[in-house]
Amino acid sequence: MISVVRMAGRIAAGVLAGTMSIATVSAAEAQSAPTVQIIRVPCDSAALPGAIAAANTTGTAIIRLARDCTYTTVAPLTITGTNVTIIGGPSTAVRESPATGSVFIVAAAATLRAAGFFILGGNSADVGGGISVLGTGTLVLRNMTISGNAAATTGGGINIAATGTATIIRSIIKANTATASGGGISNLGTLRLFESLVSGNNATTSGGGIFNSGTATIVQSTIDRNTTAGTGGGIQNAAGGTVRLVRTLVRHNKASTVALGSGGGINNAGAVGSVTLDQPIVRRNSPDNCAPAGSVPVCLG
Questions:
Q1: What mean pLDDT value characterizes the chain?
Q2: What is the pTM of this model?
């Protein structure tokens, strides 16, 4: 993807469409790259849905949000385009109020790349309070904060469908809730989490921080202070799921079941799933670090 800075120097013409500033860089001008549409959105909540609708009809589009601005949406913002990027910051947020569903929905076969803003206040009656990735949708987050969202079933912060993919880099997933599983993240597909924080999330049934029944790779991240009334305070790995943690800290998570065996840090459901630890630190979780006993190699207690 061509950087916004490089493209900005190549803009030959701009047009003003309603309240959105739109510019186009041709393929020839961008060294044979696909045409890129840049959509600049002023600090006006009413302009954001139109900007996304415009981006969805373009092969490659970049939406630039205003700095120091909170956009309020009253309905989910659905991404159907195959290559949509939204860039904010500093101090940019997208908040749903009143909370009536996911803040963002990534439709099947769509791709959303998001960087540099907050996603707040979603409340889904189904899955994915902050972001719901449907079907074969693809999500890439960088330097994002997903906070204060809720789901009636799974994925208070983010829900990834069975054939979906999410890559999360240097981001914060905190203070989200799910009535069932995956307070922070529920992954049924493919999750890659790098240098990120999953903290202070809650799920009623399992996976206060992360619920996984797909494939999850977590690298140099921190999973802490997540809670559940069931199993897997930090991470719940369901039967058939695969989790690999590399140089990752799992601490101060809590499964409310008092008896040992609930996996305050990590629960590997019935030892049927696969959890691999590579230079991790799993400690000070309650009532235990990993469960069932022996199901997570090199994890003690």
A1: 89
A2: 0.88
